Amino acid sequence: MEDMVRAFSALGNRRRFKIVVSLLESGGITVGEISRWHRIHQTAASRHLRKLEIAGLVRGEQRGPHVYYSAEVDSSSLAIRSILGIIKRSPKRRVK
């Protein structure tokens, strides 16, 4: 239950929700790409990613000099997998 509370708390922020949608659509992107796509400063993108990572919704993977972030669709938590699955399957997941 605690993982659901953390996930919903993190997704309650519109920017973080949009970032999760981007990660589900792209597969894996860097902080710089997230920053450009969402027109936010890299520091802000990093903070949002950190909160999403703590909530168990995303993970980062070091590849050379960059960290690629992706949605944690293979999470050991059924709640996290379910939440991400619902977002991914939603036909109207684009948030303005």
From TrEMBL:
CDD domains: HTH_ARSR. GO terms for molecular function: DNA binding; DNA-binding transcription factor activity. Keywords: DNA-binding, Transcription, Transcription regulation. It comes from the Bacteria. Transmembrane segments: none annotated. Residues 1-91 form the HTH arsR-type domain. InterPro entries: ArsR-like_HTH (IPR011991), HTH_ArsR_DNA-bd_dom (IPR001845), HTH_MetalResp_TranReg (IPR051081), WH-like_DNA-bd_sf (IPR036388), WH_DNA-bd_sf (IPR036390). This is ArsR family transcriptional regulator. It comes from candidate division TA06 bacterium. The lineage of its organism: Bacteria, Bacteria division TA06.
